Amino acid sequence: MKRTLRVVFVLNTFESDGPGHLVLRLSREVRKQGDARVVVHAISRDGELRPRFEESGIRTRFVHTRGAGGLNRLRRWAEALRRVRPDVVHTNLAWPDLAVRLVSRQLREVPIVSTCHGMNLQWDKAAHTRIPYTLLERATRSKCAGWTAVSEAVRQDMLVAGYRNDLIRVISSGVDTESFHPLNPSERDAIRTSLGLQADEFFLLAAGSLRRLKGYDLLFMAMNSVVRRYPRAKLFIFGDGADRSELLRLAGRLNLSASVSIRPAAPDIGRYMAAADLFVHPARHEAYGLVLAEAQAAGIPVVATRVGGVPEVVRDGKTGLLVQPEDSRALAGVLSQLLGNTDLRKRLGGAARENALLNHDIGRTAQDYVCFWRDVIEGRPVA
């Protein structure tokens, strides 16, 4: 019987973001499977995810390492971390990646591994910090024993950036298919009623941060065409972000105020997904697209753009339909195609659920990560 591993995850923040939610799901699952005991640290900001870790029986620690004295605090943290005797330290995103490498001497022989969530997330956009970070990152890259990439598209980006192919393994982020699942008709109707939807109205759903990267401006332009053909189509976007006011103004200019609703991010978004007729994700860039795997787990078809790792999650013509980015006319066309074909929506939705269970379940993801950690610890090939 293989021994239980001791794993320390290092996050930038305990605020609600993609890497934090992945580590939360993964920590819960490996703990449930009994393969690893997990501790989670954040080294920049505390946040609302921390109590959720603790409620799941996962120990946490917040250490503020930014600003004056940050490097000394980081070294003291590393010394204390070494005394815990972890088998592996697993970092996520730019500052944790670099910070842990900088104190690798204090960690002694503990291997450091990292997950790349997308090269656009690894680099600070401000030039005055990006340049020194880039130099330090390249100088310390050899301190990392291996990387995981959330998609093959991300792995390819890493190779272009000079990362070693033999140290990268692709592991998808994984979705909790027990939390995201289809609903029975009465549950579905109750949720639609709570949104003010009538029985003959179509429910289109989108979810994500309200920023240009997600392409909601393109979706609004597509909806301007869709509602002319299907005036009973209603779009609900669940999300928060800086572009909220701008999107509401755009909806007004396009006369979509009665057809589009923007609501705050919902912790129980899986219920809304399962009640929707389809999920739409018009992103300009997407490293993996966890929200697409979640929608498929809920058993609804997905319409998305063919960018980044999206084609690895959504099987075009089988679990959803893909269009080229920046093409609102094509987006309107496939949305109208699905709204006009109930049988197609049902067929794609059923296949979407099967795809999520087979290829994107968090249980499989957890097993893949445990295998990755053991291979790194025991010196076996990573790629």
3D architecture notes:
The protein folds into two domains: 5-174 and 362-377, Rossmann fold, CATH 3.40.50; 185-359, 3-Layer(aba) Sandwich (Rossmann fold), CATH 3.40.50. The protein has 17 helices and 13 strands. The chain has a seven-stranded parallel beta sheet with strand order 3-2-1-4-5-6-7, sandwiched between helices. A six-stranded parallel beta sheet has the order 10-9-8-11-12-13, with helices on both faces. The two termini are 25 Å apart. It is of the alpha/beta class and 383 residues long. 46% of the residues lie in helices and 18% in strands. The model has no long low-confidence stretch (mean pLDDT 93). Strand 9, helix 11 and strand 10 form a beta-alpha-beta unit.
Q: What composes the largest sheet?
A: 7 strands, parallel
* Distance between the amino and carboxyl termini: 25 Å
Number of domains: 2
Biggest sheet, spatial arrangement of strands: 3-2-1-4-5-6-7
* Cα gyration radius (Å): 22 Å
| Helix/strand structural class | alpha/beta
CATH architecture of the largest domain: 3-Layer(aba) Sandwich
CATH class of the largest domain: Alpha Beta
Spans of at least 5 consecutive residues whose pLDDT stays below 50 are: none
Strand content: 15-25%
Order of helices and strands: EHEHEHEHHEHHEHEHEHEHEHEHEHEHHH
Average pLDDT works out at 93
Query: How many strand elements?
Result: 13
CATH topology of the largest domain: Rossmann fold
Into which percent range does the helicity of residues fall? 40-55%
**What is the overall shape?**
elongated
Q: Looking at this structure, what is the CATH superfamily of the largest domain?
A: Glycogen Phosphorylase B
Count of DSSP-assigned helices: 17
